[in-house]
Design brief:
11 helices; binds adenosine-5'-triphosphate; 4-stranded antiparallel β-sheet; binds magnesium ion; 6-stranded mixed β-sheet; alpha/beta; about 40% helix; Rossmann fold
């Protein structure tokens, strides 16, 4: 294998370089730099209002980036329109899920495939979603708004996967979900990563479970990255333990 190939493998799929985002006059991100290597799960943890969702919105083109750059697959995507970024292969499962409540489970999944160029193998892709989340398969004609919180989260992830993304970004998948389902959702995130190899950027307030399932982690505090390391090291880090893992 040539050294070029080996180096090529290290190139991150997604890279944020010193990005700044304001809401009006107020700065939400003061220069965030992070890297998500190909096929890895990277988690971004931080308190309420730290700027986690804003970071993901910047990646998806939903907020304006004032300075800095976002590189995806080697090409800049900073401030491209959201549909363009989605078509390049970034699927964003937003906080609060944002499924189409009045549409059925099936219709929501179809919407996920809307931007795909190869309309190819819908049935096969649906089967993969139902193998991950059998409950969705049992509720195909149910309107999405009547699903439980956990089922809606499964649907939101399933819809994102229907776009066959290269990179999946998940904003607080555990939010508003019964504790018994939280573990199950995270197990599915690991399974999706293992079976499809999709590069994953995960935002969570539930720091301990997020670090347990991810390869690498970043800590965001009031719009700045203050710590980063392999997730196993962050789990042992005393500052992280005190501030985010509820240790004494
Ligand atoms: N649309 C908006 N207009 C003005 N300020 C905003 C807007 N959205 C977010 N903010 C502010 O930007 C900061 C970062 O918000 P963000 O939603 O990114 O935080 P977060 O880390 O995702 O928090 P949470 O854990 O509560 O979801 C907060 O101070 C928030 O009040
Ligand atoms: Mg948020």
């Amino acid at each position: 294998m040539s050294s070029k190939l080996i180096l090529g493998r290290r190139v991150p799929v997604l890279e944020l370089n010193d990005i700044r985002v304001n809401y009006g006059a107020i700065a939400a991100l003061h220069g965030v730099t992070l890297r998500v290597p190909k096929g890895k799960i990277v988690t971004l943890i931080g308190a309420n209002g730290a700027g986690k969702s804003t970071t993901l919105r910047a990646v998806s083109g939903l907020v304006n980036v004032r300075s800095g750059s976002i590189i995806f697959g080697g090409a800049p995507i900073t401030n491209l329109p959201p549909h363009h970024i989605a078509a390049l292969g970034i699927a964003h499962v937003p906080e609060g899920r944002m499924i189409f409540s009045n549409l059925t489970v099936m219709e929501n999944l179809r919407m996920g495939a809307y931007l795909r160029k190869d309309k190819g193998n819908f049935p096969g892709d649906m089967d993969y979603i139902f193998s991950l989340f059998p409950r969705l398969g049992e509720r195909l004609r149910q309107s999405a708004g009547t699903l439980s919180g956990g089922e809606q989260q499964m649907l939101a992830i399933g819809r994102a996967l229907m776009s066959k993304p290269k990179c999946l970004i998940l904003d607080e998948p555990s939010l508003g979900i019964a504790p018994i389902l939280v573990q199950a959702i995270f197990e599915k995130i690991v399974e999706i990563n293992r079976t499809t190899g999709v590069t994953t950027l995960l935002v969570e307030q539930n720091a301990s479970i997020a670090l347990e399932i991810s390869h690498y982690g970043y800590v965001l505090e009031t719009g700045k990255i203050t710590l980063q390391n392999e997730s196993t090291a962050l789990l042992k880090n005393s500052e992280v333990r005190t501030a985010y893992l509820g240790a004494e």
